Amino acid sequence: MSEPAGEETRSASWLWRRPQRWYLLGIPLGGALAFLVGIAFTGGFLGTLKQAETTSFCTSCHEMQAPFQELTQSVHYSNELGIRATCGDCHVPPTFWAGLWRHVEASTEVFGHLTGKLSTPEKYEKLRPELAQKIWTELKANDSAECRSCHTQTAMALAKQTPIAAKRHSSEYLAKTHQTCIECHQGVAHKLPQGS
Q: pLDDT of 59-88, one tens digit each?
């Protein structure tokens, strides 16, 4: 048995009436407050992640002074186009979840800082092969996503490259070999480990 039309109107109209009890105003006000707090938290969280990718943040630990000095001598820091890569551009994947995971992994590096794992240039050089291999493995696994966030294969001026570079950057060659950027471009921003 269905309700008469008047009953439906009356039962839905309570949504639009002013609450009879003053404390019921707290429900929409609380919802609006929760929404605003959520926006502020999200903005603060994303802003903090972006700040943690800046070169000034990364080089605030003395262990990163040697890699930073190497970067300043590379084409990724100073070039004729005036484009400068930051630490995060090369070491944090460009997608949100992968980037977030990289930040979580990087938080474990704080323990290394506190224990002095890389506190001297000698310690850094001793661990350079291991550190480099870790980065190279990550880049191979994600098809050099960090590199590709700036360098697009379709925008490359293959005609201006050497014949061998143009061949290796061609779509056909990359499809056939399944190679990724880091396999040929190791040491592009930092010194290679000895023996590499």
A: 998 888 889 999 999 999 998 888 899 999
Instruction: Give dist(CA 125, CA 61) in Å, integer.
Output: 17
Q: Quick one: 79 exposed, middle or buried, by C-beta within 10 A (0-12, 13-18, 19+)?
A: exposed
Task: State the DSSP string of 165-180.
Answer: HHHHHSHHHHHHH---
Output phi, psi for 20, to 5 deg: -80, -20
Quote the DSSP letter at residue 74.
S
What is the pTM (predicted TM-score) of this model? 0.75
DSSP code of residue 93: -
- Catalogue all structural domains in the chain, each as residue range(s) with its CATH number: 25-150 (1.10.3820), 152-184 (no CATH)
Residues 100/49, Cβ–Cβ less than 8 Å: yes
Cα angle value 50/55/56 (rounded, 5°): 95
List the one residue out of 143, 135, 132, 134 whose CA is nearest residue 95: 143
